[in-house]
Amino acid sequence: MNDNNRFDIESLGAPQYSSPLELSTVKGDRIFNFVSESDRLVFDPSVQYYNQCLNDGESPICMEKAGPRQNIFFDAKTTTAAIVTCGGLCPGINNVIRGLVMALHYFYGIKKIIGIPYGYEGLNPEKGHGFVELTPDKVKDIHQFGGTFLGSSRGGQDVSVMVDTLEKNHVDMLFAIGGDGTLKGVNAIGGEIAKRNGKISVVGIPKTIDNDIDLIDESFGFQTAFDVASPILRDAHNEATGAYNGISIIKLMGRDSGFIAASAALAMPVVNFVLVPEMDFSLEGEEGFLKVLEKRLQEKKHAVIVVAEGAGQQLFKDRKMVKDASGNVQHEDIGVFLKEKITAYFKGKSPVTIKYIDPSYIVRCAPANSSDSVYCSGLAYHAVHGAMAGKTKFVASRINNRYVYLPVAEVTKKRKKIDLEGEFWFSVLQSTGQPFFLG
Predict the structure, then answer these.
(1) pLDDT at site 438
(2) 378 is in an annotated binding site
(3) How confident is the model over 293-333, as pLDDT tens digits?
(4) By the 8 A CB rule, do 365 and 89 touch?
(5) Is 206 helix (H, G, I), strand (E, B) or coil?
(6) Are 415 and 214 in contact (CB under 8 A)?
(7) Membrane spanning segments where (predicted)?
(8) Is 155 annotated as a binding residue?
(9) Are 33 and 69 in contact (CB under 8 A)?
(10) Which positions are catalytic?
């Protein structure tokens, strides 16, 4: 595929109905305009890329602008929508569910909205979960709570069985809220539908607390995660300073990417060490972590360590590769490991008091904060607009602070990680004062 076409969105066919939204088609009449199919946003807004395109005589790589279309593919009077939430919990899932239901019902007049319980399992009749009818009254207050109103599960199901279920229940559009594995499932379901020449729109809404979805600005729930974690770091600091050579170790989520740990440390700048999956570090040696920690205690008599769950996995010998139902590698417990290693290192040297804190499951079950709540509503609304226009196998997302549609295949090619040579990580190093390299 030509790079200029890499962000093109698949369509179920030509729009054949007029949108019920009473928006403008005229610029400058003070009413929001419909978004045209020709509306595009440049992926890379840098001057360097602009000059490169000028020099090469090529058009820039662009993305499809999200928003309501004047002509839509589905007839709202006969349309059935379905919503499923998959994978681990994350702040904001209920906000997205609520936003989808409200937009489908009030914007487009869709009356039949199905909730699929317990992730993709709910599309397998053998599991016996049944369906939940979703109405505005049923979801109007769910945004006040964390978790997911519909329940979730990990792991995929037989794609043919899932599509059979969608067809049997006359589902016209499926909204899947989830992370990397869920979005790959969206692609697989969309591919099976295409093989059958079906007309079901399949839409992904990227959800991962780790903020590791590639290309997009950030995934929903991420800001709430480090917002909730920040006061925990404050209290851990108080715990550490309350004892001679006090050490607090706080383990936060971050399987392959350390954005929560790093962002929480920046938001609450009492952290002295941030250990993330992107960095390899050693424990032993003059520049190893234990020696640097010892120097810190000699100078300040306390230390606060934030470690992402996927950090330091190279330190485990004879580690066995075990995966969960979603295909994610299950990591060894780096927090407990660090506590044991630090205890052993200082034994006979000097007394230390270590407190180990793991608030991970509290953080991920928190309700969305105000910023995430706004973001979740925006994602939900734009996902509905795209589905109603007949677009499929796409995610609603935000890039360069603008809402866009991206092909699922593009955002699942790789995971987003912290650039250890980038400005963000440099800010973390400045905040903590930890060395550029540990070992």
Answers:
(1) 66
(2) no
(3) 999 999 999 999 999 999 999 999 876 666 655 556 678 99
(4) yes
(5) strand
(6) yes
(7) none
(8) yes
(9) no
(10) 210
pTM confidence score: 0.94
User: In this structure, is the dihedral angle defined by the CA atoms of residues 194, 198, 199 and 204, taken in order, positive or negative?
Assistant: negative
CA distances from 142 to 91, 104, 225, 288, 357 (A): 12, 17, 18, 47, 29
Question: Average pLDDT of the chain?
Answer: 94
Angle between helices 159-168 and 180-195 (to 10 degrees): 70
* CA angle, residues 308, 311, 312, in degrees to nearest 5: 145
Q: Is 254 annotated as a binding residue?
A: yes
Q: Is 154 annotated as a binding residue?
A: yes
| No. of helices (H) and no. of strands (E), the chain | 13, 17
Percent of the chain with pLDDT over 70: 97
Residue with tokens 């999956």: 277
Helix (H, G, I), strand (E, B) or coil at 148: coil
DSSP state of 107: I
Q: Which residue has the tokens 């991962």?
A: 208
Distance CA 255, CA 327 (A): 12
Q: Kindly give, in sequence order, each residue whose CB lies less than 8 Å from that of residue 107, ignoring residues fewer than 6 positions away.
A: 20, 21, 68, 381, 384
Name residue 259's amino acid: F
Backbone phi, then psi, for 427, in 5-degree steps? -65, -40
Burial group, residue 314, by CB count within 10 angstroms (0-12, 13-18, 19+)? exposed
Q: How many CA atoms lie within 13 A of 15 on its CB side?
A: 18
Q: How far apart are CA 273 and CA 58, in angstroms?
A: 45
209 is in an annotated binding site: yes
Q: Is 40 annotated as a binding residue?
A: no
